[in-house]
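It would be a great kindness if you could assist me with a short task in structural biology. I am sending you one protein, given as its amino acid sequence and as whole-number tokens for its backbone shapes. I would ask you to consider whether the tokens describe a fold that such a sequence might reasonably adopt. The full record is reproduced below for your convenience.
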Amino acid sequence: MDYKLLNDFSEIDSQAWNDLLNESVTDTPFLRYEYQTAWWRHLGGGEWKDAKLVLVAAYENDKLTGIAPLFIAEYDNHPSLLLNGSIEISDYLDVIVRAEDHARFISGLLDFLASTLPDSWSKLDWYNLPDDSPTLAALKAEGEKRGWTHLEEVYRPTPRIALNNDFEEYLSRVEKKQRHEIRRKMRRAAESGRARFYVVPKDADIEPEMEAFFHLMIQDPNKALFLKDVMRHQISHAIRAAHELGYLWLAFLEVDGVKAAALLNFDYKGKLWGYNSGVSREYMELSPGWVLMAQVIQWCCENGRYEFDFMRGDEDYKYRFGGVNRFVMRAKLSR
């Protein structure tokens, strides 16, 4: 493979990037070209202040074969190579390469990084690798071969619900008390005649819907602190790109014609990826957050989505709805 250190995302064709991602060992919305460029533009909504892009592309017979979107920053008191998207707002990260090319891509990448940037970094620290990614085993093997110190640890749980087109079957797998609560709250909302669930159409003007979502999001004081201007710009950029390319999935529950709860998801690769949410405190008697979550899962069942992925975090409601843990990992190599 011929490795090249690129200065900017514009040096890779966006279609070639996403086509390779479509065949990669890990394919998530957070690795798409449009998300990666948005993240770098805002440096994670201000998570990073000083960072240097290290965008590595590998070619074979002039064909794009692998991509390692990285950056160098001071982290844990060491100059570190991290995956672009690290750490807090991109739930799943990895290199972009086909399974048959993966092992030699990782080996060649480490050779390239060590020879091209020998004094710029002392450790590679990759967060949010899916627990089934072959990158984990490859980094361990490469560390042992090179005599580098290797660390691997669970970083965060990522609960998921497996689905099979049958909402009643899904409910049968939920703990009995919680199953009763879901049904009761859905029934109460329906019988009130006040609640309406809807999914924002693909061709809708996304700007007012996005503003309505942010308004609900900041009802939570912690999320209000999180959603500083630079983070709002970051997320807005990602939302617009996902909407333009057809995989944004935004749903609301209205009560008395007023938006009372919202779920922002990505509809990607046959499943919904639950990115963020917001709930008004004015209509709690109808449990709008719970009702909306149940409606979303029912929508998945009725529309052939095989999974709802709550993504990172161990919030209690995820398990009440039947989430089963998977994990994202942290892998570190120190020279």
